[in-house]
Amino acid sequence: MNQLQALFGGTFDPVHYGHLKPVEALANQIGLSRVIIMPNNVPPHRPQPEATSEQRKAMVELAINDKPLFTLDERELRRETPSYTAQTLQAWREEQGPTRSLAFIIGQDSLLTFPTWHHYETILNNSHLIVCRRPGYPLAMENEADQQWLEDHLTHNADDLHTLPAGKIYLAETPWFNISATLIRERLEKGENCDDLLPASVLNYINQHGLYR
Fold it and tell me: Which intervals hold domain Cytidyltransferase-like (predicted)?
C-alpha cells in the first residue's frame, strides 16, 4: 500500500508542544501514519541554534520516544553546509521512488515566504505541501503571481495527498498552540516554569545539561 509519508523539518531548539500537537492532530485529520521529524543543522534563513546538533537530536528522540507516529531523520544534522529543503526533498524522492505519496509539513507563516526559498519551484515536483493554519496570518500571498501559483496547486481534498505522489498544497485546520522556542528559551533564562510547554523528558534533559541559561 502506498502510505502517505510526511516530513516535518525545523530547528527544534528546543522541540516543544507547539511542534508536536498540531502535527498529531493533522495526522488524525488526514490519515497520516508516519511523520518523519528532520532537525536542520545550519538553517539558511534564520539565526543559528543555541543547542548543538547532538543536543537537539537527543531532545527530539526524548520527545517522540512514546509517540509511534514520529520517527527521526538525521540527514540534515550530518550535513556541514546549509540545509535547503529543495535538495533534501529531491534526495528523499529519489530514495522513495516516483510513485510514493510524499508531503512536507510547514506552518502558514512559512507558506507566505515560500517563494523566497531556494529553488522553491522544484519542491512540488517532489512532494505535496501540507500547511498548518495559524491564526492572524493572511491566506493570500503577497503578489498575484505567487497567489496564482498557490491557487493552481491548492486542493481541499485530503485524498489527493494519498493518491497523487506530489504537487498539491493542502491547508489543514490544526489547533494552534501559542508556544515558540524563543518564548521557552526566554522563560528558562529567567528560571520560569515551562512544564506546560514541552514534554517533561525534554525539560529534564535541558536542566541536566544547563541549556538556555
Answer: 7-187
* 99 or 138, greater pLDDT: 99
Phi/psi for 137 (5° steps) reads -95, 140
Per the confidence metrics, is the pTM higher than 0.85? yes
Answer whether 173's CB lies under 8 Å from 191's CB.
no
Other C-beta atoms closer than 10 Å to the C-beta of 58 total: 15
CA distances (Å), origin 173, targets 107, 134, 198:
11, 9, 22
For the chain, percent of residues with pLDDT exceeding 90? 78
Q: Which backbone phi and psi does 202 adopt, to 5 degrees?
A: -70, -40
Instruction: Tell me the average pLDDT of the chain.
Output: 92
CA distance 15 to 26: 17
| Grid cell locating 8 | 516535518
pLDDT in tens, 118-164: 999 999 999 999 999 877 777 789 899 999 999 999 999 999 999 99
Question: Is residue 159 classed as helix, strand or coil in its secondary structure?
Answer: helix
- Tabulate helix, strand, coil % of the chain (nearest 5): 40, 15, 45
At position 8, the amino acid (one-letter code) is F
Which ranges of 80-140 would DSSP assign to H, the alpha helix?
Answer: 85-96, 108-113, 120-126
Nearest CA among 193, 183, 25, 116 for reference residue 8:
25
